[in-house]
Amino acid sequence: MFFHHRDLAYTVRVDKPNPVFARMLQQAIGGPEGELRVMTQYMFQGFGYRGPKKYRDLLLSTATEEMGHVEVLATAVAMNLEGAKSEMVDEVITNPAVAARMGALEPRHFLTGGLAALPSDANGVPFSAGYVDTGGNLIANMRANVAAEAIGRTLAARLLEMTDDPGMQDMLRFLIARDTMHQQQWLAVLEELGPEMATNAPGDLENAPDQQDNAYAYFNHLMDSPAPVDARWTSGPSFDGKGTFSVKEPAPPLGQEPDLQPAPPEVHAGVDATGNVARSAMGRFVRGVTDKVTPSS
Amino acid sequence: MFFHHRDLAYTVRVDKPNPVFARMLQQAIGGPEGELRVMTQYMFQGFGYRGPKKYRDLLLSTATEEMGHVEVLATAVAMNLEGAKSEMVDEVITNPAVAARMGALEPRHFLTGGLAALPSDANGVPFSAGYVDTGGNLIANMRANVAAEAIGRTLAARLLEMTDDPGMQDMLRFLIARDTMHQQQWLAVLEELGPEMATNAPGDLENAPDQQDNAYAYFNHLMDSPAPVDARWTSGPSFDGKGTFSVKEPAPPLGQEPDLQPAPPEVHAGVDATGNVARSAMGRFVRGVTDKVTPSS
Amino acid sequence: MFFHHRDLAYTVRVDKPNPVFARMLQQAIGGPEGELRVMTQYMFQGFGYRGPKKYRDLLLSTATEEMGHVEVLATAVAMNLEGAKSEMVDEVITNPAVAARMGALEPRHFLTGGLAALPSDANGVPFSAGYVDTGGNLIANMRANVAAEAIGRTLAARLLEMTDDPGMQDMLRFLIARDTMHQQQWLAVLEELGPEMATNAPGDLENAPDQQDNAYAYFNHLMDSPAPVDARWTSGPSFDGKGTFSVKEPAPPLGQEPDLQPAPPEVHAGVDATGNVARSAMGRFVRGVTDKVTPSS
Amino acid sequence: MFFHHRDLAYTVRVDKPNPVFARMLQQAIGGPEGELRVMTQYMFQGFGYRGPKKYRDLLLSTATEEMGHVEVLATAVAMNLEGAKSEMVDEVITNPAVAARMGALEPRHFLTGGLAALPSDANGVPFSAGYVDTGGNLIANMRANVAAEAIGRTLAARLLEMTDDPGMQDMLRFLIARDTMHQQQWLAVLEELGPEMATNAPGDLENAPDQQDNAYAYFNHLMDSPAPVDARWTSGPSFDGKGTFSVKEPAPPLGQEPDLQPAPPEVHAGVDATGNVARSAMGRFVRGVTDKVTPSS
Amino acid sequence: MFFHHRDLAYTVRVDKPNPVFARMLQQAIGGPEGELRVMTQYMFQGFGYRGPKKYRDLLLSTATEEMGHVEVLATAVAMNLEGAKSEMVDEVITNPAVAARMGALEPRHFLTGGLAALPSDANGVPFSAGYVDTGGNLIANMRANVAAEAIGRTLAARLLEMTDDPGMQDMLRFLIARDTMHQQQWLAVLEELGPEMATNAPGDLENAPDQQDNAYAYFNHLMDSPAPVDARWTSGPSFDGKGTFSVKEPAPPLGQEPDLQPAPPEVHAGVDATGNVARSAMGRFVRGVTDKVTPSS
Amino acid sequence: MFFHHRDLAYTVRVDKPNPVFARMLQQAIGGPEGELRVMTQYMFQGFGYRGPKKYRDLLLSTATEEMGHVEVLATAVAMNLEGAKSEMVDEVITNPAVAARMGALEPRHFLTGGLAALPSDANGVPFSAGYVDTGGNLIANMRANVAAEAIGRTLAARLLEMTDDPGMQDMLRFLIARDTMHQQQWLAVLEELGPEMATNAPGDLENAPDQQDNAYAYFNHLMDSPAPVDARWTSGPSFDGKGTFSVKEPAPPLGQEPDLQPAPPEVHAGVDATGNVARSAMGRFVRGVTDKVTPSS
Question: Is F119 exposed, middle or buried (0-12, 13-18, 19+ CB in 10 A)?
Fold first, then answer.
């Protein structure tokens, strides 16, 4: 279970309230790059983890930290929407070039939130748990988590470029530091698991012997650009130590031309696509109870 | 631009059409782990890439390969929905325990597709581009791509466990082999970029000096489980070579207790939350044209 | 079935067409606070209601009224997108500070609608029936309906603050009046059902005797802020007349530490999380038909 | 900020693992009636609240409690997906009538989660923050929160009807008890605010004098069913003490027949809908830089 | 505005309640092929139409009819979920092969609706207004409407194949008849507009002279299949009377190889993609207020 | 399978980079009117088509062409986000009236894409495969495809009105030309199928004899506007040659007043809606294993 502490995970200080920047911060709350995503991702990876307790703890501790980051950012949004403490706010809002470039205000900050953060992104698109990556496998999950933090730190870097507010800069530098550690810690788990396993998730599945060629060959699908001869992925040993990179150029069509059966009449696929064929496996349930055909239909 | 070749990227052979398995295959087409996601992810990463041509080529060649995988899987779905070629289909469909366990049919395969694949997942949830991860940064993108392939190979491994059809097993083993190469090739790019950059995206942003401590410390948010002393992420050098792991236990509250200003009257936040305060920066646009207040509202 | 009458439910008059305000009005059409939501919510609650006809009538009559409100608002959007009837439009559009603050135009009003309203919110997010709350229970439904109208009236109050157009103000005051009545009428149903039932949906389910303590106790999860002694929810009788409020501080952990079983091999959860355990209930369907394991996978 | 405690908020005991019931429990995790919704709803309402600290505390304490309920339910899902501890699992899974009725398994529990809960509903639809209701107003928020708990308790009641597992019944009875208290506590806040304010959100907005009639009248939109004479909402005092209920039958069309202007040519609305009219306010930005028309377009 | 009539638009009679069929009917309510889609599509097309009143009337009359179809189908769902009137229900529910094939029950019919229809599809995916097609142009709208009815009638035809219930068959045959008329009536509008306009929306936009070749040529993108010589789209006059069909084989690459500029440093695109270039148009707003660069970032 | 060619399908030249226009172009990439929609729509219609090869080829060739259009537009977005090649960019960005009118920048072009296109629309809403229309029937599919191209050409016409950039105008005129051909080619398929079939999808389903009246009658649901006597849809032969148009005025209520059964107790529908009735067909699975009722629930 969880507990809440009165103090924020990091100081939120807004020297020049800037509602345009409040909109930008929403991307770090509810976007695919945001804290609600990693919070939910680590929660569910942790809740369902069946291996050593130390990995479960790591996932849940970090999920709990991310909850606090959501709080930090939501507080920052609310404070950027607050009454101006100085004339500097005019500089932001009444400088229409700045406002116009930055995409202006998120109207729902006023209409819906009443000057509060919302669980959505910089364009007002609601957070979706469809953003969450999980593979039910520690290696796949660690890969997803490194990626989420790498993307998150990139977003924070760009947010840092968008503000001159010293308080906001300080907060973002803290979040950037934490995104550093989080990238490092998920990589640390991968190192513990070893490259043989960790560079080819899931580590407990070997490629079939007759697919060994396809498992380490670069298939070039470009009609015009030959694969580079000196790239790391066209020659040399693979990272899992189980193969050697090669190139297939052009990418070979290893399959047949598709030739689907016509549809049975009950599908109403049209006369052009209907054959005098046996009912499909699926078609069998059609009229399944009595199996009779009604003339008028 | 793109061209299409008549032959499939790999042979699709269905020995025992199984519409329940057709539903399962949909997850590999339109789920967050699926081919439409990686196809779209690599397309957009490639279309917008501004660096060396070889990375752009790698992204677009692989995007093009994934288009062919969507075709392979959609063909496999259609063939699994086809008329039974043998009595073996009865084994699947009339064994209600199997069907019930596997979640039964996707009704839209009949109702909407007329015995065809759909751009959705095993539960009929439509594919969303919200699944796509992109960071506008080669390192972040490579991390996202390794993750997507790691999750994709894990999904394919589980699909392989669900079928005894030799044709379907062969197709899945091919896709598993390709997911192997794709994990390897994205890791190869990261190796080319070097660990200093690649383990801490974006590589061109240094942590602020006063955040160095926070950038390599594990913050333990668990009230009861001390951080492990021997884990890779609690001591030793960081992967970017710029820090040494440490532990902060318990995680420190580095911020203040939030104290938001009351809302101005035009927000209608309720008497409990309204103060006699200056209009907020946002409130200024309220009645912005004339700035007069109408009594009756 | 339904019929349409030529006249609008209320006069729509736009003195100063303002396409920025057209964008704001979209929130009242297609947002979670909007008319499409209540229209759909009352329709489906009414279509499925199995009790006294007067409640069904109330739901469907109000649903029908809301259809007319969608029409009123869509007409208002279209008129705000129309050619200027006076020079006053310049004041709005060529005053970039106003436009920038209000978030500027919804590009799809031109690109998609050709100067018409769309079934989406102020940010162009399409209406989703996921916004609809329904509990299949008159009390739960009435609670959801009071909430929807309370939120809707708050939105309309804020829209009223954003316009000086007398016609738009008049229309919004009408909608605010109707949101008043709708809040009142749903509360009237709750009064008819009586507090014993209506304050604890579903009213036909008693709490288990051994959970009586948990049913009326405030669990304080804050590590630092003691529960207030004088709040209505920390002492005194409960509203359903069946308990007395108390406080549990701190909130008690009433459960165990989770200890999940390792996963069976067919899950490919990774060697760290895989045990030599019996197949899971779910795992049984894996390879269900033949139950044999293929070596190469 | 937040902390995590090793023990669950309530004991999770699964006597007969039942993966079909695991699917049902997902509705209480990621559906519009579920714990992710109330957790997110209370978090964001609390993070943005600008009034007395005791209400903020109440919101954040309860949000924190709901995080623990997500954990409880996710653990229950994982345990229902586990290997059978007894032969009783056969009863569930090999009784196809039960499985078929209950909608069978959620395939993503295996394919994606690897025997773990997911942030989605019983049909695998991902959680969306669009489910979250917030009004930026304490009264509107309390109404939304009573509604969410009323719907949540109704869902839990139905889940209780679907299981004979004593452990699952005990867990659900605990959650039902907590949904009781949560309904009561949000009602307690409304009582503190008083009926004049709380029955008509937002309480700080009076209806316009000329809309008084519309604010307390039931408009009957049914062509055939007269409004009931004895219903609470057709006569008697309103709950806010500011009006008396009346009936308008039939509902009056208070507006005009809409008469939209033709569209200007740049809209390409078709010759049927295009007039020789001044450019619309929106049309002005078309060709805004040079304002010239190109012949060939 | 709208009114409601007590009687349904068509008789709903359910001889054998079948909750599996109730799930199937949901596709016709809330799917992309369903009545909520056409209802919303025609409402918004009508509300925003700026041409002759007879087309607006046609759109709104049909929108109103579709509201009644939603009611008919929602009633049919509720009745299919009702208590068995005979032993025949056993035939459906206790025949697990049928249930399993048909995808079994929609659990939310019980969990959420309490035996009522929901605004979602056969897989429980909520209706989205993203399904709505509108072009803000009568021709484009009529094309979208013919398409929606063609798809809707196809869905109804397949639903008819899935039931032996005489009442359900009768209801579906009525809906099929109405989908016939609706296809015909939208085609009638297109005939009134004339082929020159109606076969090439928007009719008021001529192709540029130098694009005439591209406007009537079939570009063959298949590497292996030559375009058919005798197809209607490879030779002969075009339908708008303005061109003659031709073939370009293979499809010509008419553009250049893309060559994007490197990104400016503030984008943090990575050293591989960053150049010593002028700030981008977008980059200008970065640090826009002061334009100074902070060393530590 | 697919291959990629280095050259773009059409020249992309941007004379005056305009990041506001970049946002507008996104609608043509990821909106319901965009290229990702038609690309996905034609891919899946083609992959599942079971009739003559020439129609499958037509679908897949055009799907492949649309992939190239996505690339063209994504390149155009990236180039519009690039550094200014002249002072003309100032004209766009520093003219706040233009920027404000056009809705200003898409913040995610910088925050997420790092100056690249995204798979979303002009408001940043991610592409959803729910936009895809498919009927599993050649006629229905062709109708959907004509509609998609008619809407797409209308969108392109409006985009053309929004830019003075000669390069962008040229690119849009090319896309408009291709949307012309695509409308024509799908109509060509419909002509080949013949009006009897093609004007009433699915062509292989006749209306029931007793529904003949309803199949060709216009039902007028307007209470005030009589159906026009001279419209093409109120008299004369139908387009499928199987009926004669007529009018039913007012639209007849052909059904009964709904009268749903009360709910069984296990539904917890509330005492108002619960009867002493047999368990519903659905209710049977409640407590299905043991069928016993627990007193305390």
Answer: buried
